Amino acid sequence: MTRTRLLVLVVAVGVGAAFAITQVDVEEAIREVTLPLRHDDIIRQQAARFDLDPALIAAVINEESGFSDQTSEAGARGLMQITPATADTIERLSGGETFVYEDLANPDLNIRYGSFYLDHLLDRFEGNEVAALAAYNAGPENVESWGGADLSSDDIQFADTHAYVENVLEAREDYREEYANDLGL
To answer: Which residues are catalytic?
Structure first.
């Protein structure tokens, strides 16, 4: 092989490898924006603790905060957007000790509390995921008035809560498909 041909071959292989690396990087960047996943170790741990689908926890976090710690105008904190009132309810129901609301910014505590509350809502609404998710978003009192454990998606009377439930259920399927290994599925 001539030196020129060898150089052309090396350049072609290098360009092909650079394209492949760039393609993978682009795909990862798109997935990070459209379907991020962080704290999968905590999600797996809390899913096992409360016998929840880890993809459902990830989907709730994605819909609530996009995996970004933030505080809403309503005072909801952290990845699972827990309000101080909900944190007080969780503390009372779980027999937990008093904590500082700023601690809700801690991913471990926030995912633990959010998972506990999601499990509580699933129990309250007899395993009805639509009702539990609607209650997570709009409050259990609203869900009770819309049909309680018999609630279907069509019964949700707030458009944003209806969209929330649909988005979480769709994202759960996406998390199951894209992150099965990371979530231990």
So the answer is: 64
Q: What is the spatial distance between Cα 138 and Cα 42, in angstroms, rounded to a whole number?
A: 25
Q: pTM of this prediction?
A: 0.83
Helix/strand number for the chain, H first, E second: 8, 0
What confidence tens digit (pLDDT) does each residue in 84-110 have?
899 989 988 988 766 788 889 999 999
Q: DSSP code of 150?
A: G
Q: Which amino acid is at 150?
A: D
3-class secondary structure, 82: strand
List 59's β-bridge partners, or say none: none
| CA neighbor of 135 nearest in space, from 109, 108, 155, 112 | 155
Q: Tokens 């944190």 sit at which residue?
A: 87
